[in-house]
């Protein structure tokens, strides 16, 4: 008796499903739902198919009230897997925009379900607060430092509340020039954060500050009006370093070289205390060290690199020699002169036009001359 009841029930359910499959055609786009979220101009859309309503129409089944049997569950699974859904416009939405949702359905399916397109109008997005250029310029304090043409900016924000967590940066930082504008932009993720707190930037958002106060570094050594003073001090220092004890030295200037900006990103160039300064002028010297006796035996040979950094021009295009910073390096005889010159070319130094060539200076310590 129980078996007859089960068989009879199955036959009835099968008839119901066959009836659903053989009924009128159903357009799945009629069951598409959309939700618009976010703010006006920054809105986004969520879209989906309301399968419960679709199952009611196609299978005469309400999943909120009934528990499906095996046949119904299989039909529901087939329907949920035979479609694809997409939208032509999902982000940066404004009230009044249109979004077209497209539903593609497997053709010749057993349930006479078809796909298509449906258009929706964006509405009910909240109006955001606007962050203006003037507000940013009023709330940021910018300090410029470094050299003209290689200047850097530091930013301090005086915003309160949620806007105090907003981070800004300066375009072209590290290459700023006096008299030009430093353009302020949001750091990566700034637009998203603004949206989260209910803000957008105004359409012509472009806060900026005029760059000023950067030190003037000569582009070339020839731009230094008191160049001869700097050159003389370099030569004096080269000679002073090689006038020691019971030896005599032959000091020969090979090349004068100059570098406007230090662009080694903190990697240094082997020069003592030069890494933090621009405006470097150096002399490349070949030095021979001899015994101070009748034979005058050669003890060693090396290359000295002697010079100054922080060559900053004043209003008269002269360098204040009192503010210069001594820099030096020494290469032993495992370095050829050509290798040393190439090394400093790679560090960004150029040869000074008209430098003194083949200049020999014999520095000897003679007690009789004291």
Can you walk me through this structure?
The chain is α+β, with helices and mostly antiparallel strands. The chain has three domains: 120 residues, no CATH class; 80 residues, no CATH class; 149 residues, no CATH class. It is built from seven helices and 20 strands. Strands 15, 16, 17, 18, 19 and 20 form a six-stranded antiparallel β-sheet that branches. The chain has a three-stranded antiparallel β-sheet with strand order 4-5-7, with no helix packed on it. Strands 11-12-14 form a three-stranded antiparallel β-sheet, with no helix packed on it. Strand 9 and strand 10 form a beta hairpin. The longest helix is centred in the N-terminal third of the chain and has 20 residues. The protein is elongated. The N terminus and C terminus are likely disordered.
| Percentage of residues assigned to helices | 10-25%
**Structural class of the helix and strand makeup?**
alpha+beta
Tertiary shape: elongated
User: What is the count of structural domains?
Assistant: 3
Mean pLDDT: 87
Number of helices: 7
Radius of gyration: 40 Å
Task: Write down how many β-strands occur, each being a DSSP E stretch of 2 or more residues.
Answer: 20
Between the first and last Cα atoms, what is the distance in angstroms?
136 Å
Sheet with the most strands?
Answer: 6 strands, antiparallel
Order of H and E elements: HEEEHHEEEEEHEEEEHEEHEEEEHEE
Low-confidence stretches: 1-19, 356-370
Strand percentage, roughly?
25-35%
């Amino acid at each position: 008796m129980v078996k007859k009841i089960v068989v009879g029930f199955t036959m009835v359910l099968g008839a119901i499903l066959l009836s659903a499959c053989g009924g009128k055609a159903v357009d799945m786009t009629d069951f598409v739902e959309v939700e618009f979220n976010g703010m006006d101009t920054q809105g986004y859309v969520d879209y989906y198919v309301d399968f419960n309503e679709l199952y009611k129409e196609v299978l005469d089944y309400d999943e909120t009230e009934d528990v499906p049997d095996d046949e119904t569950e299989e039909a529901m699974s087939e329907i949920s897997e035979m479609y694809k859904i997409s939208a032509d416009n999902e982000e940066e939405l404004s009230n009044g925009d249109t979004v077209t949702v497209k539903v593609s359905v497997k053709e010749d399916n057993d349930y006479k379900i078809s796909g298509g397109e449906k258009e929706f109008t964006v509405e009910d997005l909240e109006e955001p607060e606007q962050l203006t250029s003037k507000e940013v310029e009023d709330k940021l304090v910018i300090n410029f430092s470094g050299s003209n043409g290689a200047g850097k900016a530091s930013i301090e924000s005086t915003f309160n509340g949620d806007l105090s967590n907003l981070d800004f940066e300066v375009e072209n930082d590290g290459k700023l020039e006096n008299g030009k504008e430093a353009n302020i932009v949001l750091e990566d993720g700034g637009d998203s954060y603004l949206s989260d707190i209910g803000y957008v930037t105004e359409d012509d958002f472009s806060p900026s500050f005029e760059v000023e106060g950067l030190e003037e570094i000569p582009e070339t050594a020839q731009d230094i009006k008191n160049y001869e003073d700097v050159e003389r001090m370099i030569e004096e220092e080269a000679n002073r370093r090689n006038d020691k004890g019971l030896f005599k030295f032959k000091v020969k200037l090979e090349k004068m070289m100059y570098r406007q900006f230090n662009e080694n990103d903190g990697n240094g160039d082997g020069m003592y205390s030069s890494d933090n300064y621009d405006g470097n002028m150096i002399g490349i010297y070949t030095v021979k060290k001899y015994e101070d006796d009748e034979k005058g035996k050669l003890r060693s040979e090396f290359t000295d690199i002697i010079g100054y950094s922080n060559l900053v021009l004043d209003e008269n295009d002269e360098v204040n020699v009192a503010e210069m910073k001594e820099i030096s390096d020494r290469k032993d005889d495992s370095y050829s002169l050509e290798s040393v010159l190439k090394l400093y070319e790679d560090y960004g130094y150029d040869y000074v036009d008209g430098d003194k060539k083949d200049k020999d200076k014999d520095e000897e310590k003679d007690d009789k001359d004291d």
